[in-house]
Amino acid sequence: MCGKEQLREIYGSPLERARIKTLRKLDKHCRRFIELSPFLCLGTSGAEGADVTPRGDQPGFVHVLDEVTLAIPDWPGNNRLDSLLNIVENPQIGLLFLVPGVEESLRVNGAAHVTVEDGVLARWTTNGKHPRSALIVTVREAFLHCGKALIRSRLWRDDYKVERASLPSYGQMLKDQIEIADTAEEMEASVAHAYREKLY
């Protein structure tokens, strides 16, 4: 197991621009990146350990309330509440924003709390519905992350894009992984219904 000193010996010091690029508030470039982003990864941790979940909607679904505050809607999911329960226990979070076609990403770290205030939830309305809750994030640091990982992964190119048939259906995989009376077809029909009728 490597310690801090050994890691520094292996990797050396970061470039000066990498060391000083951390912002303590959201500048115009961070705001624009968030405005264009339809997807983020939300990292949290609690007594059970760390967790990362996806969040997505139309570009700009995360609202910048001011230079150090974000609001993120929590639309319907699986009701496990992994992230929300972690945040109640430990408010420290990490966000990774992606913009399709852009190889750089935006990292935002800070503290969050869950709100169910009507005035906040009313910021988002889709098909007459509002999210059940939202996260209010106080930004501690924000910085752009270089595109090496996305370039290596060719994420926005077709090279590594697979045909959906390369994997079993979601319903089939769930059926194989858990003990449940439903058939794979019944599970797939349930998933399809949720995708079609319960996104919001």
Q: What does the secondary structure layout of this molecule look like, with pairings?
A:
Layout: H1 4-11, H2 16-20, H3 28-36, E1 39-46, E2 49-56, E3 63-66, E4 69-74, H4 82-89, E5 92-98, E6 105-115, H5 118-121, E7 133-145, H6 148-153, H7 170-177, H8 184-197
Antiparallel strand pairs: 1-2, 1-5, 3-4, 4-7, 5-6, 6-7
Helix pairs in contact: 7-8
Structure description:
By secondary structure, the chain is an alpha+beta fold. The chain has 2 domains: 21-153, Roll (Pnp Oxidase, Chain A); 164-197, no CATH class. The chain has helices at 4-11, 16-20, 28-36, 82-89, 118-121, 148-153, 170-177, 184-197, and strands spanning 39-46, 49-56, 63-66, 69-74, 92-98, 105-115, 133-145. Strands 2-1-5-6-7-4-3 form a 7-stranded antiparallel β-sheet, covered by helices on one side. β1 (39-46) and β2 (49-56) form a beta hairpin. α7 (170-177) packs across α8. The radius of gyration is 19 Å and the shape is globular.
Concise overview:
The protein folds into two domains: 21-153, Pnp Oxidase, Chain A; 164-197, no CATH class. Helices cover 31% and strands 28% of the residues. The chain has eight helices and seven strands, in the order αααββββαββαβααα.
